[in-house]
Design goal:
The complex is a heterodimer of chains A (110) and B (115). Chain A is mainly beta and 110 residues long. Helices cover 0% and strands 61% of the residues of chain A. Classes of the chains: A mainly beta (110), B mainly beta (115).
């Protein structure tokens, strides 16, 4: 069974700081998702990647398949980036739903 | 176009009652997923529908939980004889075809409280 671990669980930073959230998983996967959830809000998909690196605005996601590890980076962080960031894996076989990490609660202070 | 919609947005029920939660996926999306987000448990997969194939029910926590998808579109998640531990936000997501390399689009969720 795939286990998805995220770190840190909580992160508070100052506006403008470079943010890194880490995700590791225990078995081979077909894709890794990064999701964002604002307080009281719905879940938005940020990235879906199976290899390499993707960039969207100030957000960058990378994955290392051999090391079973992914990172989400936020450059020039802003208070509106405050949210819970969740990584989730999609398996190669078995259940077709996502397996989720417990999330990283990010607070960016002005 | 419209995103994934869910109803009701909130539901309060008494222990032992049955509840039905509805999901309208994005038009044209053949893959539909149900997830649950409980306090302290995080998100967990419940069930997956893909087209006319038999659903993947491997995530359903007990036989009190069931789901249907009529006409390949709207889905209903039913919880029978609700228990307090069923209290959670139930999320629906859809994707174009269920391919492993697709983005899933999430609905706003139904917040269920079992008293």
């Amino acid at each position: 069974k795939n286990e998805v671990e995220q770190s840190p669980q909580n992160l508070t930073a100052q506006e403008g700081e470079f943010i890194t959230i880490n995700c590791s998983y225990s078995v081979g996967i077909s894709a890794l998702h990064w999701l964002q959830q604002h307080p009281g809000g719905g879940i938005v998909s940020l990235f879906m990647l199976s290899s390499g690196k993707k960039k969207h605005g100030r957000l960058i996601a990378t994955i290392n398949i051999q090391e079973k590890h992914s990172s989400l980076h936020i450059t020039a962080s802003h208070p509106r980036d405050s949210a819970v960031y969740i990584c989730a894996s999609k398996g190669v076989g078995g259940a077709d739903g996502l397996t989720f990490g417990k999330g990283t609660h990010l607070i960016i202070q002005p | 176009g419209a995103g994934v919609s869910q109803s009701p947005s909130n539901k309060v029920t008494e222990k032992g009652k049955d509840v039905e939660l509805r999901c309208d996926p994005i038009s044209g999306h053949t893959a539909l997923y149900w997830y649950r987000q409980s306090l302290g448990q995080g998100l967990e997969f419940l069930i997956y529908f893909q087209g006319n194939s038999a659903p993947d029910k491997s995530g359903l926590p007990s036989d009190r939980f069931s789901a249907e998808r009529t006409g390949g579109s709207v889905s209903t998640l039913t919880i029978q004889r609700t228990q307090q531990e069923d209290s959670a936000v139930y999320l629906c997501a859809s994707s174009t075809s269920g391919s492993r390399l697709e983005t899933q689009y999430f609905g706003p969720g139904t917040r269920l409280l079992v008293l």
